[in-house]
Amino acid sequence: MEMILWGLFFLAAGVQFTYLLVVFGRFAFFYTNRSARTQDQNTSGVSIVIAARNEADHLKDLIPLLMQQQYPTFEVVVVNDRSTDASEALLNAYSRQYSGLRVVHIRYTPAHLTAKKYALTLGIKVSKHDTVLLTDADCRPVSPNWIKRMSAPVRNEGKTFALGHGSYLALPGLLNKVIQFETLMTAIYYFSFGYWKSPFMGVGRNLCYRKDFFLEKKAFKSLWHIEGGDDDLFVNRHATAANTAVVAHPESITVSQPKTSFREYFIQKKRHFHAGKYYQAKDKLKLGLYTLSHLVFWATGAGLLFVSTDWEPIALVLGLVLARAMIQYLIISEAKKKLEGRGKVAWTLFFDLMYMVYFWILGMQGYLSRTVKWK
Q1: Quick check: 163 pLDDT over 70?
Q2: Is 227:373 a contact under the CB 8 Å cutoff?
Q3: How many helices (H) and strands (E) does the chain have?
Q4: CB contact at 8 A, 120 and 134
Q5: Radius of gyration for the alpha carbons in the chain, expressed in angstroms and rounded
Q6: Distance of alpha carbon 38 from its chain centroid, rounded?
Q7: Three-class SS of residue 76?
Q8: Residue 16: left if φ>0, alpha if ψ -120 to 50, beta else—which one?
Q9: Which H or E run includes 134?
Q10: Torsion over CA of 263, 265, 267 and 272, rounded to 10 degrees?
Q11: Residue 93: its pLDDT value, please?
Q12: If you classify domain 33-173+199-260 with CATH, what class do you get?
């Protein structure tokens, strides 16, 4: 039994170190933003599209902020999806104030379509420009150069997709620290594989792509029945090594309002994991290999500490655990610098264990669930 544990432990450790050093490490230590080093050759128009339902409180602050973006030609398209709050009156007033704001009001959603995908499709269809930049009502660009940074690969490099980072506002408390760690790890996943020319997802809080491509693919064809996935599943279906770029720059990120209760957070993550079961098989393998080896590494390491009586095997297990923790800390810190301009990350070992537990519990619930909704 002990020999089996050792074999599984070393195998899992090998997979973990390979991912950390080769997959994640390449992005963390060697990524450079090409568009940040070159001047804009193409300043064609950009359409910011936002689907919102009962988001008057957020839209009140977001619309004036977006209008301050330092980019020559852009519009903001807000799709008001059956809101029952003050969204309609607010948006109508703003549309009279800002000539660059366009508003679409949805009165009903067809029964066979999911709400957010329908709202986004209408917004993208009425947009004026081929470059579409997506975000959510509760998001805030951190820089007036957000449009310029995020759309640069699409405008200047002929890419179809530009994948950005959507972070969350830092607040006191354990839940917020869990959210910060999980969001950063998710970003490291898809930025690293995107940098390795193997993109598999993006986030709707900060995503850019071509309108013509979206319409050519008949919007969310084959995805209409899935609640969620308007961002990661659309990218998963259509992103390739040739047509996708990642944008990691402190001026390119958005910051969102995080959930403030574990119940709300679990519901949100359940929806995200539910969409994940529709990923392509090769992308499930990318994620599954790391997460399974993560679980096996900790489980067999704990088992070896329990059955071992000599100090040598105990020292070996603890040494590998410590080495992995140090490497992970360096990679997360460097990746955070690339993404957000700052790199301090605390308690990575503790949150790594929490992340593993949460992933397997919520992941299984979301994967097996048949009942998720947008709002």
Answers
A1: yes
A2: yes
A3: 14, 10
A4: yes
A5: 22
A6: 26
A7: strand
A8: alpha
A9: strand 131-134
A10: -160
A11: 96
A12: alpha beta
- Strand 244-246 and strand 161-163: the pairing is parallel
C-alpha distance from residue 268 to each of 225, 229, 277 (Å): 18, 12, 15
* Token output for 34: 């090409």
How confident is the model at residue 200, as a pLDDT? 94
Distance CA 220, CA 194 (A): 22
Contacts of residue 110, Cβ cutoff 8 Å, sequence gap at least 6: 118
Cα 304 to Cα 294: distance, rounded to the nearest angstrom: 16
Residue 332 contacts residue 241 (beta carbons within 8 Å)? no
pLDDT at 348: 84
The H or E element containing residue 359 is helix 348-368
Cα–Cα nearest to 210, from 172, 238, 178, 174: 238
pLDDT by residue (tens digit) across 105-123? Answer: 999 988 888 889 999 999 9
What would the 3-class secondary structure string for 288-350 be?
HHHHHHHHHHHHHHHHHHHHCCCHHHHHHHHHHHHHHHHHHHHHHHHHHHHHHCCCCCCCHHH
Enumerate the domain spans of the chain.
33-173+199-260
Point out the least confidently predicted range of 56-70, 77-91, 170-184, 198-212: 170-184
Q: Kindly state the tokens that stand for 90.
A: 């607010």
Q: Is the dihedral of CA 29, 18, 308, 353 positive or negative?
A: positive
Hey, what are 124's tokens? 């993208």
First CA to last CA across the chain, in angstroms?
Answer: 49
